[in-house]
Amino acid sequence: MNPAPSQTFTDGEWHHLHPLTPLLRGGIAFIAILGFVVYNLRDIGIEMIVGGGESGQPDPLIWLYESEFFWLAVLGVFVGLVVVIAGYYLSWRMNTFRITDEVVEVRSGILFRRNRKGRLDRIQGINIARPFFARLFGAARLEVNVAGQDANIKLDYLGSGAADQLRVDILRLASGTRVAKAEAAVEVEADAERPAVARSAAASQLIEARMNEFLAPELDPNLAPPESVVTMHIGRLIGSLLLSGFSIFVLAFIGGIIWGVTATGSLIFLVGLLPALIGTSSFYISRFTRSLRYSIAGTPDGVRIGFGLLSTSNETLPPGRIHSVQVNQPLLWRRAGWWEVKVNRASTSSAKGAAGQQNTTILPVGNLDDVHKVLALVLPDLTDEASAAVLHSGLTSKGGDDGFTNSPRRSRVYLWFSWRRNGFAMLPGAVLLRQGVIWRQLTIVPQARMQSVALHQGPVFRRLRLASVKLHTVAGPIVPSLGALDSAQAVGFFREIADAAIRSSSTDTSHRWRSGEAPA
Amino acid sequence: MSERIDLPEIQWRRVSPRYIVVDVVGYIVFGLIVTAVPVVIALAAGIDWLWFVAAALGVIFLVTIVLTPRRVRAIGYQLRDDDVLFRRGILYQRFVAVPYGRMQLVDINRGPLARALGLSELKFVTAAAATGVTIPGLAEADAEELRDRLVALAESRRAGL
C-alpha cells in the first residue's frame, strides 16, 4: 500500500501523494470521533448484554438507538461517511505534484483549483517533518521553502524513504549539475535499494521495516562525515534550559507567590500555582524532548539540521542561502561558556526550530568548539587559519588590537562598558561586527548576500565625531548594525563594504553550488 | 568641533527645487489636520490646557516647514558604475549604497500635487526592507529614463538573492 521508497519523482510527470494522506492530515480529529463512537457503542453493548442500568443522563446515541429514527440515522451516517471518504479520495486524486528540471509544481483542490510553482534555483531550504502519528505509518511531510513570505510548497505526505530521496534529487537539480548525472545516480540508487525494500513479501517484514525506520537514528550516519557533525550534550541542554530568561521569570513568579502567602497569611495565592506548574513543566519538557536528538551536519548539498524524539524534523539549507549569522552569549551562560547561533534566511518555514523557537536558531546551545564547527559549516569560506583566529577573537576577545577596528576612546560616554570591544573586521567574503562585553555578540554577514549598506550620523554622534554603519539583509532575527565608530573610519568602512558587496555578488556562484562540476 | 560625515569625491545630483513646494504644501495640510484635533476638542469640551498642545504642535510644524528647503537641498543621489548612492538629512544624515544587482524592482509614484508640477518619486526595492531608498522630486521624464536605465543595469548585473 505504500509506494516504493525508491520511486523517482523527478521525471517531470505528475505524481500523487502518499495514499494515507487524508488519514494523516485529518488524523487527530478522525481518532477523536472514532473514540467517541466506540465509547458510546461500548455503553450500548453493556446495556444490551447486562440490561437496565438506567443512568440519569440520556446518552445521545442510546436515545437514538431507542428512537424510531434509528435506521434513518444509520443511513444518514453511512451516506455522510461515503461523502467524506469520497471527498478525501477526490482531494487526494486531485492533489498532484511534479518536479521538472526548472520547477516544483503542486496542483490541488476539488472546486477551487490551486496551482503553485517554485523555481528550483530559488529554493532556500527543504524541510522534512515526521510527526509522531505519521512516523508510525512511515510517512513524512516535505516542504520546499522558496524565498518570500508564505512561499512554501508543501508535499504532505510522502513515503518516508521517498521524501529523503526526493530531497536529495531536488537539491541535485537545484545545484546546477547536469540532469544526466542526476538521473544516472538516481537509477543506481534505485537499483541498489529495490531488493532491500522487498517489503511486500510478508506483513511481519513490513512491521519489521517500520520498526527499523522508527528506531533508526535521526541522522543517517552515511549522510555526513562524522567530524562535521555537532550534536547536543544532554547536560548542556538541561543547563541551558535552567539558565534561561524563562527560568528567572519562573523564580520571580514562585518568589512572588511565597511572598504573597507569607505576607498576607492567606493561601489564596496558591490557587495560581497548579496551572502555572503544569504550564512551565510542559514548556521545559517539550523543549527538552525536541532538542534532545539535535544534530547539525554538513552534507554535500548544504547544512542539515535535525532534531526531535517522537516527532522528528530535519531541514537542509543549501549553500549560499544564509544571509547573516549571529553568535551570542547571554550573561547567564557565560560561566559555562555556552553560545547560541542564529541565522537570517530569505524564506519563512512553517516548521519550528529545535527548541520550539523560530527555525532561524540553528544551534540552541553549544560550547566554543561547537560554535566554530557550526560557523565552518555555514560559512565554508572562513575556515582558513587566519579567519578562524579573527572569528575566535570576535567571540571571546575583550578588545584591543586583535584584528578588529574598534570604537575610539571618546565613544565611552555612549558605550559605557563595551567601547573597547565594539568594532568591525573584514575577512575575505564576509563582514564581522563585534558588539557587547556583557552580552557578547558577533554578527557575520557574507558580502555576497548583502542587499545594501547605510551610514548614519545623528546630532549626538556628530558632536562626538562618531557614526554608525548598518548592513541591510533580508528580514530576520538579526539586524546587523554597529554604532559609535570613529566617523572617518566609519566612512572608510562604508566605502569598503559598498565595494566588497559589488565584487562578491558578481563573482558569487554559491546559489548554484555545483555548477562548476563537470557532468559525469 | 563637530564634523559632518561626507563622501567628498561624489558629485551629488540634486532633486528639483520644485519639490520644496510639494513638501511644504504636504506639511501644511498635515499640520493643519493634526493641530485641528486638539483645537476642536478644546473648543467642544472647554479643556484649556489643550491650547498649549495645539500651540506646541503648530510651532513644531512651522519649524519643519521653514527647514524644508534646506532638507530638500540635502537630498542627493549618484549613479556609480555598479551601485547607486543616496543621501538625505541635515541633522540626521543617512547615506545608502545599493548595488544594481540587488534591485528587485523600481517603483515610480506620483502624488496629485507632484503630478501637477511634473514631478515623480522613484523608489528602489531590494530583498531587504531596511534599504528604504526613495528619491523624490525628479522630473517626470528623468524619472522614467532613470528607471529604464536602472532596470537595464540591474538586469545586466543580476545576482542571486
Walk me through the structure.
The complex is a heterodimer of chains A (520) and B (161). Chain A has 520 residues and is an alpha+beta fold. Chain A has four domains: 62 residues; 122 residues, PH-domain like; 58 residues; 220 residues, no CATH class. In chain A, 40% of the residues lie in helices and 23% in strands. Chain A has 15 helices and 21 strands. A seven-stranded antiparallel beta sheet of chain A has the order 7-6-5-11-10-9-8. In chain A, helix 9 packs antiparallel against helix 11. In chain A, 37% of the residues are buried. Chain B is an alpha+beta fold and 161 residues long. Chain B has two domains: 60 residues; 80 residues, no CATH class. Helix content of chain B is 46%, strand content 24%. Chain B contains four helices and seven strands; from the N terminus they run E-H-H-E-E-E-E-H-E-E-H. In chain B, strand 3 and strand 4 form a beta hairpin. In chain B, helix 1 runs antiparallel to helix 2. The longest helix of chain B has 27 residues. Chain B starts with 12 loop residues before the first strand and ends in a 5-residue tail after the last helix. At the A-B interface, strand 19, helix 14, strand 20 and helix 15 of A face strand 4 of B. Strand 19 of chain A pairs antiparallel with strand 4 of chain B.
- Overall number of strands of chain A: 21
Main beta sheet of chain B: strand number and arrangement? Answer: 4 strands, antiparallel
Low-confidence parts of chain B: none
| Global structural class of chain A | alpha+beta
Say what oligomer this is.
heterodimer
- Relative strand content of chain B: 15-25%
